[in-house]
Amino acid sequence: MITEQDPTKLMKQQVAKAAADRVTSGTIVGLGSGSTAAYMIQFLGERLQSGQLQDIKGIPTSFQSTVLARKYGIPLTTLDEVDQIDVAIDGADEVDPQKNLIKGGGAAHTREKIVDCLAEQFIVVVDSSKLVDKLGSTFLLPVEVIPTAVSPVMRAIAKLGGQPELRMAVKKAGPVVTDQGNLVIDVKFDYIDNPGEMEKSLNNIPGVLENGLFVGVADIILVGEIQDGQPIIKEIS
Ligand code: 5RP
Questions:
Q1: What letters, b where the CB count within 10 A reaches 16 and e where it falls short, cover 200-237?
Q2: Which domains does the chain have, with CATH numbers?
Q3: pLDDT per residue over 30-48, tens digit each?
Q4: What is the mean pLDDT of residues 76-81?
Q5: Of 202, 193, 96, 116, which Cα lies nearest the Cα of 153?
Q6: How far is the CA of 204 from the centre of ligand 1 (A)?
Q7: CA 49/CA 47 separation, integer angstroms
Q8: The one catalytic residue among 94, 112, 199, 210
Q9: What is the value of pTM for the model shown?
Q10: What ligand 1 atom has the least distance to the C-alpha of 38?
Q11: Which ligand 1 atom is the nearest neighbour of the CA of 37?
């Protein structure tokens, strides 16, 4: 049940519920990361517990989604056990009009990209503040890097026109360490003109594991909005 009053949280919950409601019994579901995906995992768990949904298996994209899936009673599987994912549901930090994304606000974009790209259908769940005309205009682009390569990767990113910054942890001394034991460089661009080219250029730098540009991956964007004081869901497909 949704009783939230904070508008952003309300939009996230509504859109997460709308996405969880689309999951059907007997399917393999990619479980995204972040606060919106966390609500989606909770709603999926509630549907399972009520018997409305049966026999699904989740593939988590992070330590966070693994823990949440266990908490809400969603059985898990791995990419070794299954050869297809029916649907993946995940949040995003920016969405452009072509449904390209920036992800990685939670430093989980490497596993998210693996799972989201493998899904037959990838549904993105965002509140309306995430819609932008050009990627990179409001959010720094996350790049996961092998620790020993941080300095050369930063220099290479500067040559591509970005301003790199090592992501530092909160409530832990030193940098953010990813679920894979790597570090994250956040890159400031004025905006990213050609996301497809930038995705490839960044991933070509030795030491880069994966960057947060998701180009041509999303099938459906569900956007939570507040209109006349009421939460509504818009679909971009
Ligand atoms: C994590 C992500 C998240 O999906 C993204 O940061 C959006 O998070 P939220 O739903 O909390 O706004 O990419 O790596």
A1: ebbeebebbbbbbbbbebbbbbbbbbeeeeebeeeeee
A2: 7-132+216-236 (3.40.50.1360), 141-209 (3.30.70.260)
A3: 999 999 999 999 999 999 9
A4: 98
A5: 202
A6: 24
A7: 6
A8: 112
A9: 0.95
A10: 10
A11: 10
